[in-house]
Amino acid sequence: MASGGSTEDDTPQQTKICQFKLVLLGDMAVGKSSLVLRFVKGHFDEFQETTIGAAFLAQSVCLDDTTIKFEIWDTAGQERYHSLAPMYYRGAQAAIVVFDITKPETFERAKAWVKELQRQASPSIVIALAGNKADLADRRMVEYEEGQAYSEDAGLLFMETSAKTAMNVNELFLAIAKKMPKMDTQNPTHAAWHRGVNLQEPNGQSSWGCCAS
Fold this sequence. Notes:
Order of helices and strands: EHEEHEHEHEHEE
Oligomer: single chain
CATH architecture: 3-Layer(aba) Sandwich
Largest sheet: 6 strands, mixed
Number of strands: 8
């Protein structure tokens, strides 16, 4: 048997585990919490409660021979919590800045968040811009091309998403995972027991269970 391959019980020996802190920022009611819950739990709540301060969730993405573990901080969008934001994006390796495509003021607010991250967060932080509520495209006030052009100029990942329909939610986190440095941060033998979501299923659906299977 080749060295470094699977053992006879098919337990992988080479799976790397990389853990990253990811923060969500954006105006209130743009759907930050809904995006996270869709990604982590696979469901959408039409009457999602407003986040107070910040909420913490975790989820993993299986990418080739690497398990990317995201520690996700979902921050409150109310202005009175703005001063707390640096507590959550400090030390973050990735950020998703969210706006509502039906509300142009949230797009301008998103740009302000991007500038703040570029000025105060880690120089190597991966920033994604999410134009959320794409299911309301008939009420759109921010064109896709506008978000794309801004993101290209600012060096951001960009996708339009819908937490309600799950459009591009997994794809957004997968795109971020692909940008992360693949440095093993935990014992690789733990990978076989870590639950996560495999975003590389051929049917595009989340696969719950063992990432290393």
